[in-house]
Amino acid sequence: MPEENLKSKAVKGVAWSFVGNIANKVIQFVISMILARLLTPSDYGLIGMLGFFIGIATTFIDSGFSSALIQYKDRRDEDYCTVFYVNFGMSLVMYGLLYLCAPLIAEFYDQPILVSIVRVYCLTLVIGALTAINSTRLTIELNYKLSNLIGTAAAFMSGLVGIVCAYSGWGVWALIAQQLAAGVIRGVLLFYYVRWIPGLVFSIKSFKRFFSYGSKLLVSGLIHSAYSQMYPLVIGKQFNAADLGYVTRAQGFNDVAAGTMNNILGSVAFPVLSRIQDDDAKLLAIYDKYIQISAFAVFPLVLFLCGIAKPMILLLLTDKWAPSIPLLQILSVGFLWDGIIKINLNLLYVKGRTDLVLRLEIIKKQSRF
User: Which one, of 45, 34, 27, lies nearest residue 323 by Cα?
Assistant: First the structure.
């Protein structure tokens, strides 16, 4: 692709990613505020108790294959089909395991209702796997306009479903209905506009190539997911659903602010840098720009969020969510360098050095113990 054309696509990608992510997060933010007033911290805590298990399952389902597909230049339809069947097959395996383990999860937390919650909520894993390739194709094509329009529409419509269910007294099931609706609506829209259907082909050659790249990301992702979800696991076990709900709500605020900016840059950086992975000079020049933008945009936003945490939560969520205030402030400060870390990792993904990604993940976790 000519340099000017790539630059134009990159600029448009960032612009549409910015507009789409902002619109998406604003809709999600408003909906979450309404739901937080209608539901209780315990309702959010019950969903938070699944975080560890969902995180591990999601990492297994993707296995790093989607990233490998984006990084690889000479993609063919058999490559897409192979990754689709790997993702879908793993989603069925993970759902089956979680379905069988639901009584054990409920017993671990001493929450009998989790048996039915796990078996219904985890259907989102299968729905996501069915639509993952269509989403990946939009990323490869740098078509962030369509991708974000679909995401925004799904967030709005599923949010209405959640609000209606919460208002009707469904409790925690309103959150589950919202997530299922989001997956189904997004999947239908992706299929309608992308129109990709997997053929009956599975390439062992493609599988070996993508597994060589993705296996290190799989192990790295498992370490990261297990570590990042360990705190909700411990809080849910040692305390109660309400306490975990406060943590979940604080994380939600943090994701709306700093997480949005990091997603905007990270989602565009990887496919753009992948297209010029053999030109180190251009690669480093664009990488440098992304680092500057990340620091300029994220640092002030995170510090601002930390400063207004108390009046914001008391005004928007009422006093019942007050315990989330110090949690949000702590999480905000800890999130300062997240964007720069992700862009650095993207550079390793682009150069195919997933072995270094795995090594860094191991070193990071060892240094914290």
Answer: 45
